[in-house]
């Protein structure tokens, strides 16, 4: 396969281009070591495993490295540009969590409140005990789902696409897989999820789930606003995230990256046409768990707000104390995911990793055998996108591509390995 040159910046891309703003050496990086990032991940493209990618690394609020490589639409030979639009899927979750905590700061709910106070369909829940999908046996929930359960994925809810448990199968039987059933809105989805059995008693385990979608519905009811309006007015407009949206239309369609999956024979990235086209129409269900499309420049502004503990360019979304509280380990007895996880898919390794209010949190970097710092927090998306914020090094990193599922290649640990090994101060 031919080697692909890093594309030139175009006039259109300058609208939302993100470029280095400081000499990497002055920020504590060895520039030659940073260049290893591009050489390493270029091989993913040259070998056909990825269509293309975008990487951004910052330190102390300055962009130390920003690069693109390969194609956003490989079949048409259209290169990745700095203003490429990416489906960020579960990188929507931290945004939803920030939105919820903005309401919490106004005293509109407590983290210990039962969610049935606003979503009565979640009263009188049942928990799976035994049996098959055709004949499941359940027991009453001994603990209600509380707001903090949603933020920490300890609610007992699950995802249909996990394919790990009888309850996952029950979600699929109701039409919930990677996407919700056609024509179903968020309110109706919550009503379905509430009548399905929980995977476990709330607060007793950790399981990746639709919990953040339920949190999005809670935001709507508590605020009295649709989720898209709340995000636009309270977060995107204030942070200058002008390119983040729920679907793509008009002239922006040409900026949207194609969506890919590994070909079952040769493993090369193959265009997932049917799933990819869903981004071209307004969704009926506003998914706070995975519905947003964004750019590197926009998500950079979100991560910088987090690094600055709730404030960016004079716009304060959260108190610094609130952000510090969110990125601590909120799992019961401060256990890690290796102990509490139900074994389903997650956008993270498990051992040594806790979970805060919307983020995975590093408690001990040694078990993963990947460099990081205690207190680093992060998440990723189903199409292999990822970000992290390291308050100790005052560092953020982001990786964007469009390959489902995110577990296909070890992109995230390799990104950490290369970024931290480039730090030399």
TrEMBL record:
**A molecular function GO annotation:** hydrolase activity
| Source organism (scientific name) | Planosporangium mesophilum
User: The Beta-lactamase-related domain covers which part of the protein?
Assistant: 37-415
Q: Which PANTHER family match?
A: BETA-LACTAMASE FAMILY PROTEIN (AFU_ORTHOLOGUE AFUA_5G07500), BETA-LACTAMASE-RELATED
Among the Pfam families in the record, one is Beta-lactamase
Q: Which InterPro entries match?
A: Beta-lactam-related, Beta-lactam/transpept-like, Diverse_Enzym_Activities
Per the record, the domain of life is Bacteria
The name on file for this protein is: Serine hydrolase
- Which keywords describe this protein according to UniProt? Hydrolase
Q: Which N-terminal residues, if any, form the signal peptide?
A: none
Q: Does the keyword Transmembrane helix apply?
A: no
């Amino acid at each position: 396969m031919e080697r692909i040159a890093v594309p030139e910046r175009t006039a259109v891309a300058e609208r939302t281009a993100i470029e280095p703003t400081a000499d990497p050496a002055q920020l504590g990086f060895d520039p030659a070591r940073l260049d290893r990032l591009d050489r390493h991940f270029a091989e993913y493209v040259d070998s056909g495993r990825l269509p293309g990618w975008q990487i951004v690394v910052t330190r102390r609020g300055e962009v130390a490295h920003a690069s693109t490589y390969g194609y956003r639409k490989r079949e048409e030979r259209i290169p990745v540009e700095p203003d490429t639009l990416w489906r960020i899927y579960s990188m929507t979750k931290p945004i939803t969590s920030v939105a919820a905590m903005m309401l919490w700061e106004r005293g509109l709910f407590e983290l210990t409140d039962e969610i049935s106070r606003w979503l009565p369909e979640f009263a009188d829940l049942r928990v799976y005990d035994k049996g098959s999908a055709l004949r499941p046996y359940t027991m009453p929930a001994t603990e209600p789902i509380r707001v903090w359960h949603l933020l920490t994925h300890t609610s007992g809810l699950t995802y249909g696409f996990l394919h790990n448990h009888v309850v996952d199968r029950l979600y699929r039987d109701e039409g919930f897989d990677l996407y919700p059933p056609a024509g179903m809105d968020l309110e109706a989805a919550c009503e379905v999820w509430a009548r399905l059995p929980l995977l476990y008693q709330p607060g007793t385990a950790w399981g990746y789930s639709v919990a953040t979608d339920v949190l999005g519905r809670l935001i709507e009811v508590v605020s009295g606003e649709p989720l898209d309006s709340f995000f636009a007015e309270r977060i995107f407009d204030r942070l200058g995230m002008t390119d983040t949206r729920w679907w793509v239309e008009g002239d922006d369609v040409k900026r949207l990256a194609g969506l890919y999956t590994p070909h079952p024979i040769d493993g090369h990235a193959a265009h997932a046409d049917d799933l990819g086209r869903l981004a071209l129409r307004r969704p009926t269900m506003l998914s706070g768990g995975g519905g947003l499309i964004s750019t590197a420049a926009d998500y950079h502004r979100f991560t910088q707000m987090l690094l600055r503990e709730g404030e960016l360019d004079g716009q304060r979304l959260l108190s610094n104390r609130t952000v510090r509280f969110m990125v601590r380990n909120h799992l019961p007895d401060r256990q890690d995911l290796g102990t509490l996880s139900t074994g389903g898919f997650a956008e993270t390794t498990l051992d040594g990793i806790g979970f805060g209010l919307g983020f995975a949190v590093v408690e001990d970097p040694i078990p993963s055998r990947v460099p990081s710092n205690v207190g680093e927090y992060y998440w990723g998306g189903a199409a292999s996108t990822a970000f992290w914020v390291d308050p100790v090094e005052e560092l953020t990193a982001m990786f964007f591509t469009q390959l489902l599922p995110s577990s296909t290649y070890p992109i995230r640990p390799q990104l950490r390995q290369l970024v931290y090994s480039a730090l030399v101060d």
